[in-house]
């Protein structure tokens, strides 16, 4: 079992997303330590990108702040490599395919492996693309987490879940990240359909889950939740570094309180 999949064992997992380099790489480093201390199960880190097409305004702005402050994929990987020994929680890199292509697919996989990263999410790389990247990731024993949506047909679901490793990312709505309308009204039947088709792989639910209330409402169906925009909002609301870290801690504690009641 991969280090990522193991995080779903006997509990509902909490996966938090932060944008790498927002507002600085030093802050990303401190946030990783804080999220780890608060007991987050997996940390997803976004590679800053100018056209993040799956992202709503909160993450778009976070990505812009990171780019403005000079964060690049290379610098992000260097930072992760430097702190590798202090990070026990599995790290997942989320980024658009273009960033990986620019870096070089083979070089990217080698570098993130060295940085201790456990898996990747590349939302704009379809499963049938058969990219070299998928091959290199497998060789390096890194997870490639794939996404399904309420619109995904049963046939595709089967194909995607067979190729996904670590967990299967169930997008909770038809829209972008941070969409407060989520999750999808027929979430229960959607996730039951996924469960039936996907077999044993853990199911993570993300997009539009903005706090403890929504977690409570929907946690029966998936094996874990992914929260990004709402956490970034809480962090950004802090004025000083200390306040930002404190807000992140408080946000996570409130979600963990809900999750503690479930298995
Ligand atoms: O921000 P939200 O609505 O809480 O959704 C999680 C999300 O942020 C994170 O998993 C993510 C950020 N950017 C993405 C792009 C594609 C898929 C997933 C993501």
TrEMBL record:
Gene Ontology CC annotations of this record: cytosol
Domain of life: Bacteria
UniProt keyword terms in alphabetical order: Amino-acid biosynthesis, Aromatic amino acid biosynthesis, Lyase, Tryptophan biosynthesis
EC number per UniProt: 4.2.1.20
Active site (catalytic residues): 44 (proton acceptor), 55 (proton acceptor)
Pathway involvement of the protein, from the record: Amino-acid biosynthesis; L-tryptophan biosynthesis; L-tryptophan from chorismate: step 5/5
EC top class, as a word: lyase
A GO term for molecular function: tryptophan synthase activity
Reaction(s) catalysed by this chain's protein: (1S,2R)-1-C-(indol-3-yl)glycerol 3-phosphate + L-serine = D-glyceraldehyde 3-phosphate + L-tryptophan + H2O
Family statement drawn from the similarity comment of this UniProt entry: Belongs to the TrpA family.
NCBIfam families listed in its UniProt record: trpA
Subunit field text: Tetramer of two alpha and two beta chains.
Described purpose of this protein according to its UniProt entry: The alpha subunit is responsible for the aldol cleavage of indoleglycerol phosphate to indole and glyceraldehyde 3-phosphate.
Protein name (database record): Tryptophan synthase alpha chain
